[in-house]
């Protein structure tokens, strides 16, 4: 599992590549905490390279959403792959998180 | 074969039981004394249902074969939960846990946040976890469930072995149990809780051989083996899924509430004089439009994060404009609001944030600016961040002081399976004095009743009927306190006043009652393979004040938000002499029973009552007194002396039975 991030004009993009599971979940939290602490509270997690996610990975996303919101921003997800989409639906998490087609779209209306 | 005989006796019990109780209802009631006749027949009906539920449990009794080996790369975290137990006790368990042969990480989850504990853990190479920074003092802590939920966020093993601080695990506990998880749907493997500091006669009724035996094996047969808080292995994925589903549910509910509350707040603001101010009116219009739009989006199925984000942005903007317009006036309102607690925590650890905060925010007579800020505050408090909890994802259920039962029921509701592995793989310590024992039993009973009242298993649509009845069955047994009072009262009333709740004690009565009683006892004998069940039967009647208190306090807690008056079970023996005051109600009952015996005999000699009725009721009183006598033994019990030989440890740790 690899995380990298890039601060753009109006948001920061976190790229997650590999399996976002119970082992990678704490790492994602750390990366997003770092990004938010760096002053970018509008975060997009790009999941184009995430072919697998478990409930711990989703839990980490919620933890990150909370961190971003508390800093006055938001966390959004983009480029969701089929397995991740399935997990989102299975846990009803699609009621909470909107999956945007691309990272640029995520904060497109805001 | 056992199964055949068990089922045969179950069928006989049901037939003979219904035969007796139906006759009692239809042909035997003494209506002139309805005030005792009706309660007694209700108590008897209660007992019949109780034994029928037991029969249903053992109907499907499951004797499991050892599971296949687990994949070698399965990762495990071993959690030892502690709050205030002595350090050496915790370390004994922790070091035994470290010695478990399957590769794993051992963690002490210290809710007491003790520096000495941390030091001991670290110097022994054992992980140490306390509540993180999110658990601020204003957040509900949720006792053990909160402790475990906190640890789940900072660890990463696929499986979790949960141990109470006094439960010393065998090195092979994981080798024996992990293989069950080869079935992808298994979320939980529970092993027995067995206590090594209990003498052969078990004066405090600590061992639960019927529960950690036929009852759990029977529930297992219905895919309803319970999680009992310790000595269990759980699948992280299942717990996290539970946490996520719970999070979505709680969030959707609170967003709906927040929107409703904000509308009320706006309406109220409009009625006040300040609403004539065009700027204020304009702001209120905007916010109302935003919440109305949010409501529509919600119905249309938009995601909660989008909805809440947009509404809050609009509300923020509106407030900001107002602040610019009339900053100084707002300042005082803001201070007032800041001084107000948004979330409050019940002592039971159960949050009551939403309805309470919402009521308080909408109920007070705010000025228009205040009202607008209150909208903002409500949305702030109840949003996708779940600001009423320390962490948004709470995998272990927090609706009850006993997190285990509710968690298992929800796992079953999500379609997960559970396993009961009938082999002692950890050795624990039971309370050694009456006071601690009573505290523990009260806590279990309260927790069970909380689950019944908050999430009645009978109406959980996603559970099978077998599962619903298995959960309900355990809850039903905790109602026995009320029946016990009637069973004590009826013979006293007959012997002292000569009032019989039945028409007559005749051949009709005996021909129906005796076969039922015989087959009833036979059922326990056969289903239990001769394990001792008498101690359990005594305690289920003798602790009637505890059971009644559990029901009333749990009802007050769930319905009226009152605290349970809950205490952690102390692991060390409480000092002091025999504490008779703890069993005062039972002593009073015993004295009344004794008086009834004497008066009954006098009445008989005076020819005021019939011999057969007296004989039956004297026998009944004798039975009641024998039941209660267990408490004398319990109060006089001075704690475990190692020379006592404990109840013989099942050969080969029950390996043959697995």
TrEMBL record, chain A:
Record-linked InterPro entries: Anti-sigma_ant, STAS_dom, STAS_dom_sf
CDD domains, per database record: STAS_anti-anti-sigma_factors
SUPFAM superfamilies found in the cross-reference section: SpoIIaa-like
UniProt cross-references to Pfam families, sorted A to Z: STAS (PF01740)
Domain of life: Bacteria
Residues covered by the STAS domain: 1-110
Similarity remark: Belongs to the anti-sigma-factor antagonist family.
Annotated NCBIfam families: ant_ant_sig (TIGR00377)
Protein name: Anti-sigma factor antagonist
UniProt organism field: Paenarthrobacter histidinolovorans
Taxonomic lineage from the root: Bacteria, Bacillati, Actinomycetota, Actinomycetes, Micrococcales
């Amino acid at each position: 599992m690899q995380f990298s991030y890039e601060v753009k004009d109006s948001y920061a993009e976190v790229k997650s590549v590999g399996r976002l599971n119970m082992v990678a979940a704490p790492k994602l939290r750390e990366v997003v905490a770092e990004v938010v602490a760096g002053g970018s509270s509008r975060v997009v997690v790009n999941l184009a390279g995430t072919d697998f996610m478990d409930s711990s990975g989703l839990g980490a996303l919620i933890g990150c959403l909370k961190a971003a919101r508390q800093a006055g921003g938001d966390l959004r997800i983009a480029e969701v792959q089929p397995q991740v989409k399935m997990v989102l639906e299975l846990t009803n998490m699609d009621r909470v998180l909107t999956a945007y087609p691309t990272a640029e779209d995520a904060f497109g209306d805001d | 074969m056992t199964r055949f005989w068990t089922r045969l006796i179950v069928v006989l019990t049901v037939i003979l039981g219904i035969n007796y109780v139906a006759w009692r209802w239809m042909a035997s009631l003494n209506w002139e004394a309805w005030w005792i006749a009706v309660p007694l027949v209700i108590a008897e009906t209660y007992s019949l249902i109780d034994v029928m539920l037991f029969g249903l449990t053992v109907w499907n009794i499951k004797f499991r074969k050892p599971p296949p080996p687990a994949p070698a790369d399965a990762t495990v975290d071993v959690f030892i939960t502690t709050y205030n137990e002595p350090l050496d006790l915790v370390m004994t368990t922790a070091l035994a846990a470290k010695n478990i042969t399957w590769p794993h990480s051992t963690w002490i989850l210290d809710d007491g946040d003790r520096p000495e504990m941390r030091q001991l853990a670290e110097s022994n190479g054992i992980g140490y976890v306390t509540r993180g920074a999110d658990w601020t003092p204003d957040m509900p802590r949720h006792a053990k469930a909160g402790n475990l939920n906190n640890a789940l966020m900072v660890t990463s093993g696929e499986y979790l072995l949960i141990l109470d601080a006094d439960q010393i695990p065998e090195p092979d506990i994981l080798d024996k149990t992990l293989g069950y998880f080869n079935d992808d749907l298994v979320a939980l493997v529970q092993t027995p809780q067995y206590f090594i500091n209990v003498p052969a006669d078990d004066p405090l009724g600590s061992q639960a051989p019927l529960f950690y035996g036929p009852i759990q094996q029977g529930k297992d047969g219905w895919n309803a083996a319970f999680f009992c808080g310790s000595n269990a292995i759980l699948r992280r994925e299942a717990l996290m899924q539970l946490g996520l589903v719970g999070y979505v549910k709680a969030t959707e509910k609170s967003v709906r509430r927040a929107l409703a509350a904000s509308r009320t707040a706006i309406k109220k603001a409009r009625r006040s004089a300040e609403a004539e101010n065009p700027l204020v009116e304009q702001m209120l219009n905007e916010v109302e439009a935003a919440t109305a739009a949010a409501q529509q989006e919600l119905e249309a199925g938009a995601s909660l994060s989008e909805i809440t984000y947009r509404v809050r942005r609009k509300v923020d903007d509106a407030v900001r404009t107002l602040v610019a317009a009339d900053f100084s006036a707002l300042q005082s309102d803001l201070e007032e609001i800041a001084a107000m607690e948004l979330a409050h925590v019940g002592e039971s650890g159960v949050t009551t944030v939403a309805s309470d905060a919402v009521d308080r925010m909408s109920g007070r007579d705010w000025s228009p600016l205040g009202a607008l800020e209150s909208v903002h505050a409500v949305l702030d408090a109840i949003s996708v961040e779940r600001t009423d909890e320390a962490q948004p994802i709470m995998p272990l259920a927090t609706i009850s002081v006993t997190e285990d039962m509710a968690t298992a029921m929800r796992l079953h509701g999500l379609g997960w399976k559970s396993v009961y592995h009938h082999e002692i793989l950890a050795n624990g310590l039971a309370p050694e004095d009456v006071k601690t024992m009573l505290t523990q039993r009260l806590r279990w009973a309260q927790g069970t009743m909380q689950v019944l009242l908050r999430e009645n298993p009978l109406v959980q649509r996603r559970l099978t009927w077998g599962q619903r009845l298995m959960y309900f069955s355990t809850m039903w047994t905790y109602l026995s306190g009320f029946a016990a009072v009637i069973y004590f009262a009826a013979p006293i009333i007959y012997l002292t006043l000569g009032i019989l709740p039945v028409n007559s004690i005749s051949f009709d009565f005996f021909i129906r009652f005796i076969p039922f009683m015989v087959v009833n006892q036979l059922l326990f004998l056969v289903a239990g393979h001769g394990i001792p069940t008498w101690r359990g039967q005594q305690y289920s009647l003798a602790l009637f004040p505890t059971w009644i208190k559990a029901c009333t306090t749990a009802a007050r807690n769930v319905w009226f938000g009152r605290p349970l008056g809950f205490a952690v079970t102390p692991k060390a023996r409480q000092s002091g002499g025999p504490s008779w005051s703890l069993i005062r109600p039972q002593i009073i009952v015993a004295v009344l029973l004794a008086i009834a015996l004497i008066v009954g005999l006098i009445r008989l000699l005076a020819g005021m009552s019939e011999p057969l009725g007296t004989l039956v009721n004297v026998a009944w009183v004798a039975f009641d007194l024998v039941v209660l006598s267990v408490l004398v033994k319990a109060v006089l019990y001075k704690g475990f002396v190692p020379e006592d030989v404990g109840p013989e440890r099942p050969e080969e740790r029950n390996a043959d039975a697995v």
